[in-house]
Records
---
Amino acid sequence: RRPTKMYTCVRIWSLLLVLHTLAIVVVATRGRRRNILFIMADDLRTSLGCYGDSVAKSPNIDQLASQSQVFLNAYAQQAVCAPSRTSMLTSRRPDTTKLYDFGSYWRVHAGNYTTLPQYLKSQGYFSMSVGKIFHPGIPSNYTDDYPYSWSIPAYHPPSFKFEDAKVRMECVKDKDGELHANLLCAVNVTEQPGGTLPDLESTDEAVRLLKSRVNTDVPFFLAVGFHKPHIPFRIPEEYLSLYPIEQMTLAPDPDVPKLLPAVAYNPWMDLRKRYDVQQLNISFPYGPIPKDFQLRLRQHYYATVSYVDSQVGRLLAALDELGLAESTIVAFTSDHGWSLGEHGEWAKYSNFDVATRVPLIFYVPGVTTLPQRMGKSTFPFIDALSRPELSFKKIRNVVELVDVFPTVSYLAGLRAPEPCPDISFQELLCTEGDNLAYTFRHIERKEDEEAISFSQYPRPSDTPQENSDRPNLEDIKVMGYSLRSWDYRYTLWLGFNPKTFEVNASDVHAGELYMLADDPGQDQNVYSVSDHNVMMTKMTVNLQMRMRLQLLYLTAGLKSRRTA
């Protein structure tokens, strides 16, 4: 996504002027450095009011967005939890962290890369983690990367241990009175162990930590990771009433596209393993979920989004009430998206927009909004039924989650990490993303054809099998590399060696090319093997540049045929 040489000088000069202007605002508040509240949801697609979703009821996140900068086209680097979170927090792509599954810790397996909270901690921040920030277990060394990244051990809500426990999380008993682990599981919270749920506990703990930082001169970095809307949909049952089932609709493209390569299909095994889904007796791998259950599934997902929105509202209201809103940057995002029946798919595990696109919102007091008048709240809590009239500053050009680390660093008044060299395994601190700070003082006037996101997803075979969604490293045979530009999504499924981590760019298993102006849902694959073969010459460039050149060639041919 770096600019071409012919534009480099002009863009660098413009960028320096813009960054200087932003720096004046940032430095002006450095009597004490800005605090940072970093909020991450799990499996949250852009099903939010501020992203144009008319179904979603998300007034608190929308209120945050109205005082922030909203990136409409932000993409994860891999649509599964551990690889995406590790990539975002280190600002390194999965091919650099060498994490495509859940079986390794990057500091041991790839390189001792500095994380965003670790960098801030080294610069004097008190860093704290609540809920799910790093993926727990092996990918974060069973410690959430403590003490590298955090000043104190990470907090995990005690009630999370009941999340998948059949005895405690079941909503409905079968006719024999047995308990089962269901996908759809709205509950009466008062009947749950401890009378609570994980995200309720995480919000309480985050508020407690905010209160503990009010009377200190040490800036804080508080990362709060909500477990929802990740499955199971174990949420307070009252949120379902926000979405009457008779008002729910199916995905606009619920069928598997005819020209979708088999290797690209995600058979959503994590849903199939749930008891209530098993009772539907759905054929593997393409058998559709019955329409009535699809409607209920979509209802539960949206209800879970509103549940998360309420927790965000509670957290932001506390930030406001404690007098911290005017001195705290707020960043809100997700680790990846989630398919809701589009292309006949559910869950994440693909390279489509619905799986890779995420919300990305930055609130910077004094930059994205003017100081509040005396006595007026910045983030009053809003009931889910309210729909306040709001406007948003939106950036439409493509950005990536690897951009978060350098952007947050700069907005905090620190030096953003330098760009990584092509081979960076020995570099402890660098970024494979871009510093987006220039966009905060820059009016987006047109599309940036240079802006491209780069995502990838591994597969164990060319056809769907039970481990297609989450293959272990040793089982990966194919890697799907995907470029997303303003106009196109271009994906190549290439041979991959899991022992050497090498991709064979000449071993093309399948390809996808979608023209988004005519096909925003990415249902009409216009990839041509014959056109692609013309481009498969030896090029002394890396894979990203090779695919960019191929995309330019392929789309030029398509455009000429359309205008002929």
---
Amino acid sequence: MHGYSRLGRSSTGSGSISPSPSPPSSPRFRRNKGSSGGGGGGFRGGGGGGVDVKLQSFVERWVYVVISAVYRRRGILLFAPLLYISAMLLYMGTMGFDVGMIRKGSESSIGKTAPVGSLYRSPQVFEHLWPYMEAENNRSNDLMMNVWNMKTRQSWKPCIPLQNSEAELPKSNGFLIIEANGGLNQQRLSICDAVAVAGLLNATLVIPMFHLNSVWRDSSKFGDIFDEEFFIYALRSHVNVVRELPEDVLTRFDNNISNIVNLRVKGWSSPTYYLQKVLPKLVELGAVRIAPFSNRLAHAVPSDIQGHRCLSNFGALRFSEPIRTLAAKMVDRMIRNSSSSGGKYISVHLRFEEDMVAFSCCIYDGGEEEQKEMDIARERSWRGKFRKKNRIIKPGAIRMDGKCPLTPLEVGMMLRGMGFDNNTSVYVAAGKIYKAEKYMAPLKQMFPRLETKDTLASPEELAPFMGYSSRLAALDYTLCLHSEVFVTTQGGNFPHFLIGHRRYFYEGHAKTIIPDKRKLAQLFDSPHIRWESFQKQLREMLHHSDVKGSELKKPTASLFTYPMPDCMCKQATTKNSTKLRR
């Protein structure tokens, strides 16, 4: 007997089965030998009569050969998408997105066909539009009183989904020790997630330790930034928190916290992972460490775990007394300085520090000097990262994609285009601005009532905070939280937490301008744009920020940015009463 063969079989006259000869050849090679007009260029069609088709031209022959090859080697089709993508990348590489990387300080080397939005030409745009801005100075402008459309908003109120209970918490399963790293709001994220995990595991949380980050270089402890006593008190009914490990527990580990097992937990781990992997170790050993603890809990978790996040972020974490005291004074001074607009002011989170500009790989208007400074800054902070072999950096494409940090000049033009005049009070929250004297001058020209930490507080008041980036950031955070309008320019944890905090305080609306930086790149690369067109497009951008201000949280989003509906309840008004509903 013979096994099944995909090659087929032929029968003899006696009905016996004989091995099949070689499979038939491709139709392409079956020449029409019986055709009187047959030539090498034809082949027989499918009919019994045999229709000869002649290939009339070179193009027809070429297409025929390609189709035949593909038919015989159908696996080629698997590579078609890859070939298409490769061709597109090759095509993109011929475009002028990387202008400026080859520039050596002169505009003449920039191609005239550079795509709109790929070049930094904001100074030319400002020079063109400044006369129109000047003409609108000192006009009666009530925009600050009516920035946000109150009529279209749904009202939300804080509503944390946790049961308040005076009963004692159950016996703890052990001590949880975490290490928070990063800047102020990265640490805040780790603390809130640690509270949630401690609640999940019924663990006693030890006040988190802060890792000394090589970038932030801030040696502050938890109590230097946050009110430690209030944190413990606010969580007392939901999570046990202690300042340090009890002496008897520490003795079991030879008085060395490093001897406590450090569990390596994957990023964005689920509650199930903690219950199955961490809890058994916690019960067995009595204490566990998780370091680092950045982004170690998934966004999508049950409501009771989210409730612990809400309580810790919006209720338990408040800044230390020295920070609160000075911040309150600065807010009061900012309100007094904004008397012409009813005490309302704009806050801007400006990310134009040297490291930020260097990391972006964007090119501005500093020529060779800027390029050298950025190369040095990149090498200092990210050794070799930007000099890897075959790494291609295209500043033009980065700018068109809206990834370049906005300069102070661009922020000012954006706000003036939206309708804020020169009488508007502006607070700038920032670190050390790159070439501040040069880049801040036009922003001050457009908004003379501009303030920073250094102008609102005296050197003596700021002295205890100098050299501590997280404490200085806490001052900025408070000033931004209490502003009528908050402007974010570059993303990051600072605006993400602040937007959520503002939603929590302002009935669900962020009152935040989130600019479309792709659109801005085009506007700021149009030196001859009409003022009316410039205003129209920026006011549409402001309206879009207003509409998006009350967004609800999506399943995979962070409640620190979108506190509705996990941390807030919708306020529904009826004829007889006003009640909250989730």
---
Amino acid sequence: MDSFVSEPRPASYETLSNNVLKRERRARERQVREEEKKKVTTNKIPENQRQQVANDDTMDPTQFLSNRIKSLALLKESGVNPYPHKFDISMSITEFIDKYRSLHVGEHVENTEISLAGRILNKRSSSSKLYFYDLHGNGAKIQVMADARHSDMDENEFCKYHSGVKRGDIVGICGFPGKSQRGELSIFPRSLVVLTPCLHMLPRHAITSNSDEAQSKKKTRNHSWTPGITRNPETYILRDQETRYRQRYLDLMLNSEVQKIFRTRAKIISYSRDFLDNLGFIEVETPAMTMTVGGAAARPFITHHNELDMKLYMRISPELYLKKLVVGGLDRVYEIGKVFRNEGMNLTHLPEFTMFEFYMAYADYNDLMDIIEKLLSGMVKELTGSHKIKYHGNGFDSEPVEIDFTPPFRRIDLIEELESRANLSIPKDLSSETANKFLLEACEKFDVKCPAPHTTTRLLDKLVGHFLEETCINPTFIINHPEIMSPLAKWHRSKPGLTERFELFVNKRELCNAYTELNDPQVQRQRFAEQLKDRQLGDDEAMVLDESFCSCLEYGLPPTAGLGMGIDRLAMLLTDSPNVKEVILFPAMKPQD
């Protein structure tokens, strides 16, 4: 056996052998790298297509539109309809997320066929065989991971088709669910078809540097808005207010937070409707065009009925019609609808707005204070998870205020609190010239501006706004208004000259107006006559006599209480919107030149 034992090799021979092995290993590694390089080169997007993708973001919008129109024309000439009539979906994007969110990282369910549809708002790729899209629909988003290996198309068709898909296009996808290696829930298409092409170039985030881009992504990732908390408009893609309000479809498409705002508004209306339905109320509809103006102190819009050849008014309130229904035996009624008041526009009021009004037989204003406390506190708790909300009442540049809807709400007596805060002794007979002179001097003393005409009602209203409304951050009932300010409210049962009326103020703005209803027809006619005096002095917002309503009262209105609440202002509070146009889908705007 010893003859078969090799002699020890010289050290130089062993070193030489190791060097040879190292060279061979390096050669193999170079070969592998070259092969990978060839694969990458083969998979790269062709130069002309890569240039086209890059140009999409830098191209002039007019040229982009022209190019898309031309490409659609070519499709039509070839017999392809670029606007399919129908696409069957098996589930919504929201349902897809709920069903498959529990998949493991890298897990694919290839034996499941899913069809989804939505709008593409982001597209990215570095390879002709792999495209990533962000698919949006119904307020939700998922990733589309289009891989040529899973497609029904061959590689050339795949590359050509996907290079023509643009941001904004609405697409239909058939594929299987899974999660990427990074853990992002995705759909992997076997087929993807453009259902509706977007002809215009969509805006992107305005980024000026890499640091700005990182900061923007961080803000977007960390801020997910829900009702009751402050909003972050800095994360919006489309920020120009004029464009957002005039082209609300773009606002909804690009700014996901805006969809949440209007979903919240819808929930406010649904909650209010359900609340009253559960109390035995029925919802009704009353005329939007009327022969007389009534139910509120406001200037109306005037229109003309061609068939009847008569002037009609757009309603400023549904109040008188609703009370007629109570006379007819519908003891609990409500209406949610548009009213129109031809008056000023500001951050909290537009001439066309949504009013929520209800009337309840055999109740008074004390009952309504309890009801509206329960409705609002319950609504805020339901939608936000708390009784406290944050609100940028003075704009997004200022610090938000905290508003607490925890019941019971604060209550202050109008005359008593005004006299206390202003150190005044207001004459008891507010219909007298003495009272009018006293209030005019008080306005001058405290530099409270009141445009003409200087009726007692207007002077008193301005003083209340100056001294009382400014203190109402949390929900506050201002109660027991004078008769002169409340022509439709019933006189107070224990305080002469006052009425059983309240206004609910939140963040210094009126949200609700309510009272025990006046049901004595003789007193109602007298109140209308007193309003006529103010109208003759130049107050074109004073109420006019509605004889049909007075005649209705003669048949008997039971003891009743009614309340009106502005839906728009409530939506502003719960969506942190300092501008009322933020909560109206298509607000009135001056025409563009």
---
Amino acid sequence: MLRSFISKRSLQSFLRYHHHHQHHRRPFSTTPGPPTADAELRKYIGYTLLLVASGAATYYSFPFPENARDKKAQLFRYAPLPDDLHTVTNWSGTHEVRTRTFLQPESIEQLEGIVKEGHERKHKIRPVGSGLSPNGIGLTRAGMVNLALMDKVLSVDKEKKRVTVQAGIRVQQLVDEIKEYGITLQNFASIREQQIGGIVQVGAHGTGARLPPIDEQVISMKLVTPAKGTIEISKEKDPELFYLARCGLGGLGVVAEVTLQCVERQELVEHTFLSNMKDIKKNHKKFLSENKHVKYLHIPYTDAVVVVTCNPVSKLRGPPKHKPIYTTEEALQHVRDLYQESLKKYRSQVAASGSPDEREVDELSFTELRDKLLVMDPLNKEHVIKVNKAEAEYWRKSEGYRVGWSDEILGFDCGGHQWVSETCFPAGTLSKPSMKDLEYIEELMQLIEKESVPAPAPIEQRWTACSKSRMSPAYSSADDDIFSWVGIIMYLPTMDAKQRKQITEEFFHYRHMTQAQLWDRYSAFEHWAKIEVPKDKEELAALQARLKKKFPVDAYNQARNELDPNHILSNNMLEKLFPSSEAQ
């Protein structure tokens, strides 16, 4: 009865397969057949290589002696694995689990059977979407259920602009399928590969002070729960549970179907220009109130602030006629020049990272070039400052306008593997911004410079209206409240295990400083897809207490214990963040 898709070595490879082979899906049982002699031989060879890889990883996890500074460990990501073992890695390359239970139902009936059996056996089946959460919130080695094969548009109400979909449908797939009806989603996050169930459950968001987080677009949901079976909830039908479960972190039931309130499909004009904090302060209220979408990209160790606004094309004036001053090639030239200059200093590091030759460098995008620059010396503050200044120059020469549909315009190239921490905090109201959002940034920049943090760009700042979902970081009972979202980042541009470990340690030091200096004073809470569970017991206890002050943790745990008494939909992260004495 339990069905599974072909095992992939990472969720990213599964996504690529699913996108290109929609008409060749052949699910089969996760239980392996009788092994052949060759299969047995391959299995034991795989175990041997896995043991060697584990030994190497363990060795490089401990402090290095002074005479071992130049030693290097390579990740053994492609060692042969047992046929029934699935390796699932999140998009940012920061979390990975191996499990023998990775189930992909093709219908709600199959999903109901999976949840029922998991409940009876007390076997975990944590819901996981596209694996895009930087903290791997959907991952657990105990077992997962993924709805990528439940990806259909079920109905469209063109008049009411509403669409009902299976929760495994990806954002881009949904948008492509409903554009013929002249409708689209109200807002978008930076990328489009999220499954609808996942993007809603973690309280993801786009930008625009008049626009709420994406969970507010949900007007009804169908949840498959372990204890009460399949239930339908909305603000008319069980509103208390609806507003709790809408941003439920996958812990109250597997979201099987979602009805979304859409909007008319519009062409937008994107305007990108370089500013500075002095001018931003003068125009901040105007930027928030007069633009449908607006975000700032702050560049550490410079006064540069990239402003990106998006608004509907004027029906009277049409799209702007302005032509860019610089071509894309001219905008990239300064970054390429820095790369060639840096090659002379960091030739050995570039050779070790397998950097492309000059011809290939000319074909790289800006974010790819930034990765190639940072990999040379990612924790050297002076080197990072040079890269940041080159980024500021790139954006100065990229000023101009772009016209396209909202699903084309409202994206952002986030770069490659990375660590990220994003906080959400109140910023007053649209009619009366508190200016706390800019004060937060100023203090953050001062902290970076004071502590000599090798902080790369950008520090992305976005805004949303409030959410009525009680577990949303942007929850407020006041309709006119607005919230600012600020993300700090450190890239992982290398596969060198030692260097990745050093970057990781530096990032968590960076994050800890922002937490200690800013979070409490600004009532800032991390995005659910980016919160990391502390290993230290005292820090964990402090986090648990802090979450209880902001969120209805007791009500959430009560609902979990009623709908999922065995916590089969949970994982270590949820149990640590929301400990419950009633869990069985």
